User: What shape does this take?
Amino acid sequence: MSRFVSITILFLMAGFANVASADIITFGGMITQAQDPTEPAANNPTLNNIQVLQPYLVTLMFTGSITAPGTYNLTGANLTFSDATAAATETGFGSISLTITANGGFDEFSFLGCLTTGSGCPFGNQLDANFRIPSAGLNSQNVAATGLDQPHPLDLLEDDGITDIHGTITSYSYTGRVSAVPEPKSTVLLGCLLAGLIAATHARKAGGNRCNRSPIE
Assistant: This one.
């Protein structure tokens, strides 16, 4: 295989590898307030299935890494609220921000994910969470968390505040540089590019051999 083809393949593989990796923060606890059945959730009806004492999980997948306290603009990341028992999920978030403040031996988290529905984030269309963990656990898994902003460390608001779900926050995990499975269309594209480069190389070699062959007398 020619040096050009080898270098091109390396560049392609590097590009796909960069796209397919991310860091993940998860935190969770138990639901302490479910939606009022007399005012059911309209934008996301699956939230009406949530019941008190069910476990929930918030998952944030983002590029880059967080290794110290600070303020982070994570808009563009993938944010998911899920209650597996109720088969309820919410993923319709736009702007996302996270502030981590060092306080003694703890890191205090203030998290805000703004939904793209309703009249906007300030009018009751958001997920906010406030909790703290030991500072040594910032980049660790299965860390015990303590909820702040009681009595609702987790608050999911939708439908301009009509939908209002609360939860505790008792666990936290940070997983670094997770490789995601490439999308099928990306895999097909990479395969076609490689096949085309290899075919072109073989064709060029075959043409060169015909030119260099001695004529038959």
In short: The CA atoms of residues 72 and 98 lie 5 Å apart.
